[in-house]
Design goal:
This protein is α+β, with helices and mostly antiparallel strands. The protein has a domain at 116-329 and 422-472: Cytochrome P450 (Cytochrome p450, Orthogonal Bundle). Helices cover 54% and strands 11% of the residues. The protein has helices at residues 2-23, 25-29, 45-52, 58-68, 87-95, 107-113, 123-136, 139-159, 167-184, 190-205, 216-244, 252-258, 265-296, 298-313, 323-326, 330-343, 374-378, 421-438, and strands spanning 71-76, 79-84, 101-103, 164-166, 348-353, 357-359, 362-364, 369-373, 439-443, 449-450, 456-457, 462-467. The strands form 4 sheets. A 5-stranded mixed beta sheet has the order 1-2-8-5-3. A 3-stranded antiparallel beta sheet has the order 4-12-9. It has a two-stranded antiparallel ribbon with strand order 6-7. Helix 9 packs antiparallel against helix 13 and helix 10 packs across helix 11 (216-244). The chain is globular, with a radius of gyration of 23 Å. Mean pLDDT is 91; it is low at 1-5. The structure holds protoporphyrin IX containing FE (HEM). The site of protoporphyrin IX containing FE has 25 residues, from helix 7, helix 13 and helix 18. It holds the Pfam family p450. Its cofactor is heme. Pathway: Plant hormone biosynthesis; brassinosteroid biosynthesis; Steroid biosynthesis; Hormone biosynthesis. This is Cytochrome P450 90A1.
Length: 473
């Protein structure tokens, strides 16, 4: 609540200015997408937050689409914003990144990420760094190099499970350890765990007002960001010395140190921070929600078990998964797709119009914010039959349904397409493999999904676990 009050105070000032702008004669001459700017100052922010704090936030977009069509104007988080709920417009927005639109993060997030973060980079530097990140997480690197650590670290974590675990917590620990290993070849230990604790504080700061005077959470986040940066700088300095002595490692940090650009320590640290943020919440939430949805859909869980028992039956208990095993998990990929579709961790992306943009007979004025809603498309009954039901079978190749690339976009698209999309899929698949072949479980308590400020279950999804006898070998 305190956050909300602080937030409203700041947005009131920003809103007053944007409201005046909106009423200016220039905007009255333009044909803006229809919609409602809500109350003076707060716009429709409170309605949006109230909707996304429930298990069913859909009415917020559904009602506006019904009234105004799939491109509409609203006023949220301090600014008039054009929402797109249709695949073609979303594609147009994503593909025109850097030409007609540019990415736009709230001040709290950009300050805490650091100015050299990939998420904030623009122009040719962004292009170059995006492809460097892609090359570090592509299929052949995962196959030859990362898969073995993914398998080992997931097993190691699952070995420690007894009786009751909070799945969301465990999943976060796993994805953090995996990312630290992939970025800088550090195995989990006290160092990574204390870094993770600081990290959690940084992420909490993302959803506050970026004014240290008003928000304790934001003050704490800045302190934590400094500690994270110090810890990472130490590693970067050590590794730079090693590199100059001719030592070579096969990780993202090595690629940054070896590049022709001679990045400073600060640039490298910001880059690493962004990658840790990008892969952490997203992958761990999908891990948790895949298990939640499977638990609620016993037929799908049974089919998934069968697939993984078949793979494990050909191996000894301790044998690591190979790339060929990953490639023989078709139903797992259906489960991953369906979880991404229904849960929509990144419900859409914000962009800012770099110039007046004409689209579908309307004009989005220069400087206005737009939101390409993936969630609205993924849960649209015109795009997916029974769109709001978890149904992994819809993705089976024999289902007779094909889904165009611009309709299913959990990883975004265009120049900012998620560089970790394959890595996330592999991590999720390996996790599901070890989970279903080694454990059975049931929810320890009823737990609900909420979508604001991030997608999560309210109680961190507690489950009671039992180890399985290996009867399928
Ligand atoms: C299920 C897991 C994941 C989901 C749903 C996801 C989703 C997304 C989406 C939608 C974007 C586009 C943002 C935009 O257009 O503004 C994005 C960007 C990004 N993702 Fe992921 N992601 C996931 C996992 C990962 C992982 C494991 C990594 C680690 C390598 C990663 C790294 C990034 C980075 C660095 C960007 C920024 C790209 C840029 O701005 O150029 N993501 N992700």
């Amino acid at each position: 609540m305190a956050f909300l009050l602080h937030y409203l105070f700041i947005t009131a000032i920003i809103s007053a200015v944007s409201f005046l702008l909106h009423r200016s004669s220039r905007h009255r001459r333009l044909r803006l997408p229809p919609g409602n700017l809500g109350l003076p100052l707060v716009g429709e922010t409170l309605q949006l937050i109230a909707a996304y704090k429930t298990e069913n936030p859909e009415p917020f977009i559904d009602e506006r689409v019904r009234r105004y069509g799939s491109i509409f104007t609203t006023h949220v988080f301090g600014e008039p914003t054009v929402f797109s709920a249709e695949p073609e417009t979303n594609r147009f927005i994503l593909q025109n990144e850097g030409k007609l639109f540019e990415c736009s993060y709230p001040g709290s997030i950009s300050n805490l990420l650091g100015k050299h973060s990939l998420l904030l980079m623009k122009g040719s530097l962004h292009k170059k760094m995006h492809s460097l990140t892609m090359s570090f997480a592509n299929s052949s690197i995962i196959k030859d190099h990362l898969l073995v650590d993914i398998d080992r670290l997931i097993r190691l974590n699952l070995d420690s499970w007894t009786d009751r675990v909070f799945l969301m917590e465990e999943a976060k620990k796993i994805t953090f350890e995996l990312t630290v290993k992939q970025l800088m070849s550090y195995d989990p230990g006290e160092w990574s765990e204390s870094l993770r604790k600081e990290y959690l504080l940084v992420i909490e700061g993302f959803f506050t007002v970026p004014l240290p005077l008003f928000s304790t959470t934001y003050r704490r986040a800045i302190k934590a960001r400094t500690k994270v940066a110090e810890a990472l700088s130490l590693i970067v300095r050590e590794r730079r010395k090693e590199y100059e002595r001719g030592a070579k490692k096969n990780d993202m940090l090595a690629a940054l140190l070896a590049g022709d650009d001679k990045f400073s320590d600060e640039q490298i640290v910001d880059f690493l921070v962004a990658l840790l943020v990008a892969g952490y919440e997203t992958t761990s939430t999908i891990m948790t929600l895949a298990v939640k949805f499977l638990t609620e859909t016993p037929l799908a869980l049974a089919q998934l078990k069968e697939e993984h028992e078949g793979i494990r039956a050909k191996k000894s208990e301790s044998e690591a998964l190979q790339w060929s095993d990953y490639k023989s998990m078709p139903f797992t990929q259906c489960v991953v797709n369906e979880t991404l579709r229904v849960a929509n961790i990144i419900s859409g992306v914000f962009r800012r119009a770099m110039t007046d943009i004409n689209i579908k007979g309307y004009t989005i004025p220069k400087g206005w914010r737009v939101f390409a809603s993936f969630r609205a498309v993924h849960l649209d009954h015109n795009q997916f039959k029974d769109a709001r039901t978890f149904n992994p079978w819809r993705w089976q190749s024999n289902s007779g349904i094909s889904c165009p690339g611009h309709v299913f976009t959990p990883f975004g698209g265009g120049p900012r397409l998620c560089p970790g999309y394959e890595l996330a899929r592999v991590e999720l698949s390996v996790f599901l493999h070890h989970l279903v072949t080694r454990f059975s479980w049931e929810p320890a308590e009823e737990d609900k999904l909420v979508f604001f400020p991030t997608t999560r279950t309210q109680k961190r999804y507690p489950i009671n676990v039992r180890r399985r006898n290996r009867s399928f070998s």
